[in-house]
Amino acid sequence: MDTLIPSLSQLIEFAVAPVFLLTGIAGFLNVMSSRLGRISDRVRVAERQIHTLSDPHIVDRSKREIKVLWRRVKVINWAIGLCVASGLMVCSVIVALFAGSLWFVDLKTPVISLFILAMMFLICALVVFLVEVKLATTTINMVRTIR
Q1: What is the value of pTM for the model shown?
Q2: What sign has the CA pseudo-torsion 89, 90, 95, 101?
Q3: HEC sequence for the chain
Q4: Of 11, 40, 48, 122, which one's alpha carbon is 20 to 30 angstroms from that of 102?
Q5: What would the pLDDT profile of 3-17 be if each residue is shown by its tens digit?
Q6: What are the tens digits of pLDDT across the range 36-94?
């Protein structure tokens, strides 16, 4: 029992860093899901408004805006999916740390591999998120030329 407490304490210390990373990923997910909600609302409004427009030139621009908005929905969904995958890998790292300690199995290689995979998913999610932000800028410029 005396040796269990220090080793458990040390294990919890090792697991704290991935837990903080998981908190950061949750923050990214919150931002991305909020953007998805705002994009979805804008799509609904734009699709309703397009039926009330009479100028064919403005209708054409509104259709292009709607297409960009739908592209943004797809891109932000990818970013969310990659972020969730990263979070799942981080959770797997934590589980592997505790499982390896509990069953006295050397899981260094799986833990390192899962952590690298988590970082790769997170990097991809952030790059895809940047693409969505660039698309948002395009949409803003498109709407600005309409009015």
Answers
A1: 0.87
A2: positive
A3: CCCHHHHHHHHHHHHHHHHHHHHHHHHHHHHHHHHHHHHHHHHHHHHHHHHHCCCHHHHHHHHHHHHHHHHHHHHHHHHHHHHHHHHHHHHHHHHHHHHHHHHCCCCHHHHHHHHHHHHHHHHHHHHHHHHHHHHHHHHHHHHHHHC
A4: 122
A5: 656 678 888 888 888
A6: 999 999 999 999 998 898 888 888 988 998 999 999 999 999 999 999 999 999 999 99
